[in-house]
Amino acid sequence: MNLALWICAGLLAVVALTGGISKTFVPREKLAAAPGGGWTEDTRAGFVKALGALEILAAVGLILPAVVDIAPVMVPVTALCWILLMIGAMITHGRRGEFQFVILNLAYLLLAAFIAWGRFGPGSFTG
Q1: pLDDT tens per residue across span 17-56
Q2: Range of the domain at 104
Q3: Is 12 part of any domain?
Q4: Cα–Cα dist 111/75, whole Å
Q5: Domain count, the chain
Q6: Is 52 in contact with 27 (CB distance < 8 Å)?
């Protein structure tokens, strides 16, 4: 169980880091031209960058607290926050009719739900 939770956290951290870096450092116009990036045309650049920063923090929060054994409860808390972020992403893509991205975000949400369940429950760092 512990290995599965680490693998899922690592995969989700890579997804979060990749998305976060692109939203933070790639110009909004270029993001808008990418598949699934059309939503950025409807928002301010600062909002896109803020989402990117949150995703980078999520990547850190999914791994670092457990690795350094400082506040490891932040791993499942971060996973819960990621679930909320994915609900917002699913709503945004759903409104735009981009259902392939809704499914992708649902997969990320399910990974985060597994991490939150596992790290709050049977795979907790405190037990």
Answers
A1: 999 999 999 999 999 999 999 999 999 999 999 999 999 9
A2: 2-120
A3: yes
A4: 13
A5: 1
A6: no
